[in-house]
C-alpha cells in the first residue's frame, strides 16, 4: 500500500509539473524545468511540453525502457511534419506554440522529430519509416531543417526543394559539470589523458565537423587525433549514440568531465537549473554554424511548410532563438530566396512578415 501511494504521488507530481511547463511554453516563456526531478523524468528536460498532440489517450512512458524523447506530437492526425536536426530541440515547443498562435488550424497537429541530421536523411531515404523499440511508423517530412550546407547538399541530391532558407547562427562551447572539477579551461585540455569526454559522433552528427575545425585551430591535427582517435580507442572519449545532447546527460550522471556542444545547448541547460556550466572558446578557435531549412520533395503539406519556413525568419521566432544564445542570420541576397520570401509576404494570410532577405552562399 505504501509503494502504491508513493507511485501515485510521483505520477501526480510529474503530471502537475508537465502541465505547469506546458503552460509556461504556451505563454512564450523559457522552459520551466523543476529544480528537483523525479525518477520518472528521463531525460530531465522533457516534462511533457514537447508533445503537440491534444488527445493523448493512455499516457505511458517508462524511462530507460519505453521512452521516445526525440519524437513529438501526433503522427496520425498531422498537418505539418518537421524533421529538425536536434540542435535546438529545446526551442521547438515555444516555436510551435508561437506558430500555432498565428495559425490556430494547426494547433495540436504539428509533428516533429529531433534526430541528428544524418539519421533524418536516412529516414527520408527509407520513405519516412522509423522504428523505435517495438514500434514502427511512417511520417514523411514536409520540412527538413539542419545545417545550411547539409540542406543545400540534399537539395542538390534531389531530396529537398530549393531554395534553402537560412535563419540563425550558433557557436561552440565546452560543457562541463558545475564547478568544473576537472579544471578544463581550454580546448587543449580535452586532449589530456585523465579528462573523460562525451563527444558527438562524426558518423552522423554535423557538429563534429565544426568541432574538428575548432580542435585543429587550437591544437593542430595532434589535438584532433587525441580527442577522436587515441581517447576513443582507450575509452576516455565516449561518442554519443543519438545526439550531442547526451553530453549534458552523461555529465549530470558523472560519466564525463567535459564535452563540446553548441553554445545554445549549454545556455538551455543552465537556464533549466541543471548542474552544468560551460567554458567559452576564443573566437579565433571557434566555429560557427548556420541553420537552414527547405521543403521536402513530395511534401504533403506544402502550404504549411511554406508558412513554417517564413515564420522561423520572423522577429517573433528569432526572439525565441535568441533566448538560447542563437543570433539571427543577416546575409546578402540572392534572387531565389528573395523570390520565396516575397511570395510569402504577398500572401499575408500564409505567413507572418519576414523583413530580412537571405541567401545560400556560405
UniProtKB/TrEMBL annotation:
InterPro entries: ModA/WtpA. One of its GO terms (molecular function) is molybdate ion binding. Residues 1-26 form the signal peptide. Keywords: Signal. The keyword Metal-binding does not apply. The keyword Signal applies. Pfam families: SBP_bac_11. It comes from the Bacteria. GO terms for biological process: molybdate ion transport. Residues 35-55 are annotated as: Disordered. This is Glycine/betaine ABC transporter substrate-binding protein. It comes from Paraburkholderia ginsengiterrae.
